[in-house]
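Progress narrative, Year 2. Work on Purine-cytosine permease from Pelagihabitans pacificus advanced from sequence curation to structure prediction during this period.
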Amino acid sequence: MGQYNIDEEIEELAGGEFERERVPPSKLKSWKSFLGMYAGEHAAGTEFTIGPLFLTAGVSAFDLIIGLLLGNLMAVLSWRFLTAEIAVKHRLTLYYQLEKICGRKLVVGYNLANGILFCFLAGAMITVSATAVGIPFDMEMPKLTDTLPNGPTFILVVLAVGAVISLVASKGYDTVSKAANWMSPLIVLAFLACGIVALNQLGVKSFSDFWNIWGSGSDPFPGQIKYTFWHVVIWSWFANAAMHIGMSDLSVFRFAKKASSGWTTAAGMYIGHYMAWIAAALLYAVYLKSPEAQAFLSNGEAPPVAPGPLADNAIGLFGIIAVVLAGWTTANPTIYRAGLAFQAIIPKASTFWVTILAGTVATVAGLFPAFAMKLLDFVALYGFILAPVGAVIVFEHFFHERAGIVRNYAEIAQINYNKSVLWAWAISFGLFYFISIRFEVFLSFVTLPAWVLCGILFLIFSKFLQRRPLGTST
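Result:
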């Protein structure tokens, strides 16, 4: 049988996405596919929210400009030398690879949590796009303190935006990648235009004027915490912790021809998480000078962060369109990942229907503005929850021989759950979450210690708990 026919059979069995198979060589993609996807996903609707939220935390110029430079570099290195390296070696989704290590019962719980958290994140992006779509309908914009929908117009707009995004995501990886490639240049141009217009509106004539926009920082807005240099560095590094050190993007980079495709994440980090965040912060700096924002501050309230009106104020209709498209290109791959998580729980379901399920959950989440308005806190929490599980894959991949343990132990020993994984995650999560709450430590500060401890405990527990079947090797 020829390779072409083998690939056709694999694609038919796996629903076209190879959820429980290695991606065959004929389906591998060049770095260009990932460049567009990451540039589009991370120069996105949420950047219009995250940039302003840094200002509500009172960051200084040095904290923001240099802190983001370093934090995003660490994120790129994590993707390149951990996620992409492991992805091209095994070419499996995160969920199927975890099943081999953890066992089916244990990974079902993880997949459910992973899928739901991704849906909540996509929901925040749907909310962001809705702030742009709602402008022509005179929709009341959500405030930083809003939790519930603020009116029927908001509900209808969110439902419409969520339906379109879900349908695009349900078409699979190729459609998601193509959508990102088509839209990302327009979105990047919009962020750049917003930044330039905002600089003009702020009267910036020199670099010192630009630096003085943030200066030495300020007190945080009501209900926000103060961000220092290290808050910015660590938060920006782990803003996508679930994707890189948490290994979620194994599901994406399994399609890469080479691990060097991991460098394409720099397009997302330095166009999206650097230029776009700063541009969005400039838009908010303009808004803060308005009578409306000053009225909020005089009443002891934080002025709202509504991306649609911010972009509209800078570049008009083009800004509105850019916010809508930016929400699509971020929510699409996020819903796609969530669909893969749900498919690992119900493997007989098609990719289309599990992605529609994920899109429905995301749309419902988008009805609650708190996910978008508290995005800094939510992103830190979901990264902290999911990242330590990725340490299990990383530490097994790089250290299984040195530790003398069996790779893919649950598959080889035919067990439904691996106690070593369960105890490693529970102890690392529980210990550092307690430290964060008890001593009021910024949650992102304990993400890396929790990740490292989980990996080390996994190796130790595996050494003592594994019962190596005869004839297997490390």
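The chain is about 70% helix and 0% strand. Residues 1-16, 469-474 have pLDDT under 50 and may be disordered.
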